[in-house]
Amino acid sequence: MNCAGLIQVYAKSGRAVKVSTSDEVSLSADVQGAITFMLVSCRSSSTVSLSLRAHCVSLMDANRTDWYIRHRGSDFHVESENLTDDLPLFQLESSFMLHVNTFYTGLYTLKPVNSDDQYIKSDADGRLTVARRSYTADFYDTASFRIHDYHSSSKYNHSSCL
């Protein structure tokens, strides 16, 4: 499976996913400031059933090798795989199930592989968090993302990954 590519991620609202100077992952105030990620194969693929592995990805900061989006509890940061004391936990917390058309046609959702029925969503302040699915329009809006190919700004559609 080839699941690599440079991407930028935007909330359904159009706000760009960015990384702060303290490595916190959140939404920018507008479409500006999107960080470029390398969409790579799942860091923890051995924990995912064979039938779901094609949907499992990790997001590495394109400017820092081995720095991945990772959730600890409900918050998201970009952290170095090389600085962790617990590599299996790091790999688990930096692996996500990527699905298209979950809540809206053409939009994507990301679910941590170690969380049942939880999704990445944005809070009112723009922070990305992990939250249990709520069957509301607000949840669907804040848990839906656009993924664009960095080189062409076109929607990313890598069929072997999605």
What is shown here, in short?
The protein has 162 residues and is mostly beta strands. The protein has helices spanning 87-93, 137-142; strands at residues 5-11, 17-19, 25-27, 37-41, 56-61, 67-72, 75-80, 96-100, 108-112, 118-122, 128-132, 145-149. The chain has one domain: Trefoil (Acidic Fibroblast Growth Factor, subunit A) (Trefoil), CATH 2.80.10.50.
User: Can you tell me the CATH architecture?
Assistant: Trefoil
Measured as a percent range, the helix fraction is under 10%
The number of strands is 12
- The computed structural class is mainly beta
Mean pLDDT: 89
Low-pLDDT runs: 152-162
CATH class: Mainly Beta
What's the total helix number? 2
> How many domain modules?
1
Order of helices and strands: EEEEEEEHEEEEHE
User: How would a textbook summarize the main sheet?
Assistant: 6 strands, antiparallel
Radius of gyration: 14 Å
- The termini sit apart by 11 Å
Form type = globular
Can you walk me through this structure?
The strands form 4 sheets. Strands 9-8-5-4-1-12 form a 6-stranded antiparallel beta sheet, with no helix packed on it. Strands 2-3 form a two-stranded antiparallel ribbon. Strands 6-7 form a two-stranded antiparallel sheet. Strand 8 and strand 9 form a beta hairpin. The protein has helices at residues 87-93, 137-142, and strands at residues 5-11, 17-19, 25-27, 37-41, 56-61, 67-72, 75-80, 96-100, 108-112, 118-122, 128-132, 145-149. The protein has 162 residues and is mainly beta. The protein starts with a strand and ends in a 13-residue tail after the last strand. Helices cover 8% and strands 38% of the residues. It is globular and about 35 Å long. The protein has one domain (5-149): Trefoil (Acidic Fibroblast Growth Factor, subunit A), CATH 2.80.10.
